[in-house]
């Protein structure tokens, strides 16, 4: 069952390099983190732009809003009524 072939830490070196953590543990500044962040932000940007454009096309409001809302500036479904 148990055995004596496991040596706890002494022969294997630093155990912290094998421990995963949300903050990165000892490697909290990985290589190319700025490049990876830029690539991720670019991907998010490329995903959100088409979604926003489709949202503008599909936006419909059965009643005029009581106060002005930002989407009135770019949505063509509102007309030219001043609020």
Task: Produce a short descriptive summary.
It comes from Cinnamomum micranthum f. kanehirae. This is Transmembrane protein. The protein is mostly helical.
- How far the N terminus sits from the C terminus, by CA atoms, comes to 79 Å
Class computed from helices, strands and strand pairing: mainly alpha
Q: Which value, in Å, is the CA radius of gyration? A: 27 Å
Topology order in helix (H) and strand (E) letters? H
- Strand fraction equals under 5%
Biggest sheet features: none
Number of strands: 0
Can you give the mean pLDDT? Answer: 76
Helix content: 25-40%
Count, helices: 1
Q: How would you describe the shape?
A: rod-shaped
Low-confidence stretches: none
Describe this entry's structure for a reader.
The protein has 83 residues and is an all-alpha fold. The protein has a domain at 31-83. Helix content is 31%, strand content 0%. It has one helix and no strands. The protein is rod-shaped and about 70 Å long. The model has no long low-confidence stretch (mean pLDDT 76).
């Amino acid at each position: 069952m148990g055995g004596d072939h496991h040596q706890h830490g002494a022969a294997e070196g630093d155990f912290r390099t094998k421990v995963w953590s949300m903050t990165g543990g000892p490697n909290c500044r990985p290589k190319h983190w700025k490049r990876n962040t830029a690539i991720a932000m670019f991907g998010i940007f490329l995903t959100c732009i088409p979604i926003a454009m489709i949202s503008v096309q599909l936006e419909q409001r059965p009643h005029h809003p009581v106060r002005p809302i930002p989407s009135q500036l770019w949505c063509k479904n509102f007309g030219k009524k001043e609020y």
